[in-house]
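Dear colleague,

Thank you for sharing your sequence with our group. We've completed the structure prediction you requested, and as agreed, I am returning the results in plain text so they can be pasted directly into your records. Please verify that the sequence below matches your submission; if there's any discrepancy, let me know and we will rerun it promptly.
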Amino acid sequence: MTDQRPARTLVVGAGQAGISLVTALRELGDTGPVVLVGDEPEPPYERPPLSKSYLRGEHDRASLVFHDTGWFADRGVELVTGDAVVGIERDLAGGRATTTSGRTLEFDRLALTTGAANRTLPVADARHEEPGCPVATTGLHSIRTLADADRLAPELRRARQVVVVGGGFIGLEIAAGARLLGADATVVEVAPRLLDRAVSPGLADAVRQAHERRGTRVLLRTGAVRVVVEDGRARGVELTDGTTLPADVVVVGIGVVPRTELAAQLGLLVEPRGIVVDQNAVASDGLTVAAGDCAVGPNPFGRGLGGPTRLESVAHATDQAHAAASALAGHPSAYDRVPWFWSDQGDLRLQMAGLPHGADRTVLRGDAAAERFSLLSYRDGLLIAVESVGSPADYLAVKRALEKGMTIEADAAADTAVPLKRLITEAPAPGPS
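Please find the predicted structure tokens below.
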């Protein structure tokens, strides 16, 4: 007699990808029991506001939470919070996981949505504030979780001099927030430009100028040698050029490291960028799925540079998690969405769709100095991305064009007298390989 028991699913990681995967499973009609495990004490919540409006007191905690307890109960999902999975064993039929508290969770299907952890500053005296860390340096912060934001927010509101180490999206968002709260803000970036590897050089330069116009000091090609600590509190940052920046608060935003420990424990293929998955978000064992910040897989967007890609965005986590849920439910559906992203840096809003990496031509549309412009990136004559500041209509037009597999002729794109939506045309058929 065949066992008709519904398959039990364990989802490890209760961030954006985890909650999206659980949601997608139920939308796909899967009715098997699901356990969603998160190591934070809070239920799943939105992370983007943490480095922006939440720090400025414009969101309360309750407004960040995705769903109340009733939502999980109604869908037959057991939510486990504040209890990290520390070990997993599995075979072809399923397996079991153990948590920090000693709990055992048996499963038939496994999803890893373990996210990423912040890189720490590899310099002397840099001990970030964390719960239960008795030797933490007061005033030295990084931000990834709600608890991180809760520790940083009150200090940021009192600070007069803030140094942000790292000129990525998070660092620039925090620097803009500190400035709006009345502090002097300095961004220290070791690379030759801001947002290195994330955006085009043209957008990086425009963003730097925009921040400097607002009073933020930006130091490029400059590293941090030491956090100056007096009586257990950060008082400044010593730089590679020998100078020291005084600070009431030091915030470190130098990127993240994918959390792949459990995947490695299972013997899955892992590389420095994450757990290796295929277009269906399935890992190397052909059974486990992985999605979000912890995973690296085929470029979901067919234009531009190919090769393994790891993206960090809400849209990516949601879309890849849907592919993972489809694979678990037995209805594989390749993840092939156009990547899109936004960043609010004070009153400066960046919107991006596609991937500009590998572009051989960039068209400027609008006025970068006036902060109303778009950069359209092309490769081999084909539109591959848009990066917009203060130009939402351009962003939406290109995003929709890319989603439909269409393009915009480069020579016509710079003419702001013609709306981009009127310039969308069929993309040429790919030539023989």
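Summary note from our side: Residues 9-117+257-328 form a domain with the FAD/NAD(P)-binding domain fold (CATH 3.50.50.60).

Kind regards,
the structure core
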